[in-house]
Amino acid sequence: MITIALSKGRIFEETLPLLAAAGIEPAEAPESTRKLIIGTNQPDVQLIIVRASDVPTYVQYGAADLGVAGKDVLLEHGGQGLYQPLDLEIAKCRLMVAVQNGFDYEGAVKQGARMRIATKYTEQAKEHFASKGMHVDLIKLYGSMELAPLVGLADAIVDLVSTGGTLKANNLVAVEHIREISSRLVVNQASLKLKHARIQPMLDAFAATVAARHA
Ligand code: ATP
Ligand code: MG
């Protein structure tokens, strides 16, 4: 059996064409079932539906052979035990620093002010501000980071931005770009060795599909 870990929503939707290229079609859509294990047209391939941030953990421990995870999630997880052969170039967004409109971020940085930063991405935020030589207080949140500056919980947030619509709707502006984010294929290292004959053609089909999009 080959088990593939995916999260509901954009990752599942954007992975579907890649699975199709490898001849894999899910029997059900995660939105229309409460099942967490979904069969496919291939008797030896199943999908498991997990939280986006849990994908690396399932693959790391071999509970899933493959998975699809955002670079943001992989950087927070650390990537131990994971082979990351391919950028799937899906679920693209940017990790950014944002503040409330009117907050003088540049000024605060120049003065060496100690800022409070709310984020779900504490590892990447820590690294970013350390590389700027800034001392910050990190406040860990699990969602709706946009709210934090509005109610005085933080001076700035580190969050993923795609269109900027959510920032705008909450009177926030992006002030710094940390990195481009996309989702990667992750593979359990033991699975790749032990199930190589079944897994390698899937990796090749995914890679060919990603490459064809550049043509
Ligand atoms: P959860 O919604 O379960 O709290 P999450 O927000 O990390 O977790 P998703 O919203 O499914 O999960 O996002 C999955 C991945 O898609 C993220 O890890 C990130 O790489 C990417 N992503 C997040 N937000 C966006 C966005 N607005 N546009 C494009 N890609 C995004
Ligand atoms: Mg989300």
List keywords for this structure.
single chain, 215 residues, alpha/beta, D-Maltodextrin-Binding Protein, domain 2, 2 domains, 34% helix, binds adenosine-5'-triphosphate, binds magnesium ion
What does this structure look like?
This protein is an alpha/beta fold. Helices cover 34% and strands 30% of the residues. A 6-stranded mixed β-sheet has the order 2-3-1-4-11-5. A 5-stranded mixed β-sheet has the order 8-7-9-6-10. The radius of gyration is 19 Å and the shape is elongated. The mean pLDDT is 97. The structure holds adenosine-5'-triphosphate and magnesium ion (MG). The site of adenosine-5'-triphosphate (ATP) has 18 residues, from helix 1 and helix 3.
Give a summary of the structure in a few sentences.
The protein is of the alpha/beta class and 215 residues long. The protein folds into two domains: 2-91 and 182-212, 3-Layer(aba) Sandwich (D-Maltodextrin-Binding Protein, domain 2); 93-181, D-Maltodextrin-Binding Protein, domain 2. It has helices at residues 10-21, 55-60, 71-77, 105-111, 122-131, 147-150, 165-169, 189-194, 196-212, and strands at residues 2-6, 37-39, 45-49, 66-70, 82-87, 93-100, 115-119, 136-140, 156-161, 172-181, 183-188.
Strand order of the largest sheet: 2-3-1-4-11-5
Form type = elongated
Strand content bin: 25-35%
From the coordinates shown, what is the CATH architecture of the largest domain?
A: 3-Layer(aba) Sandwich
Q: Estimate the helix proportion, in percent.
A: 25-40%
| Global structural class | alpha/beta
What is the CATH H-level superfamily of the largest domain? Answer: Periplasmic binding protein-like II
Number of strands: 11
Total of helices: 9
Major beta sheet, specifics? 6 strands, mixed
CATH class of the largest domain: Alpha Beta
What value does the average pLDDT take? 97
Q: State the CATH topology of the largest domain.
A: D-Maltodextrin-Binding Protein, domain 2
Please identify the oligomeric state.
single chain
Rg value: 19 Å
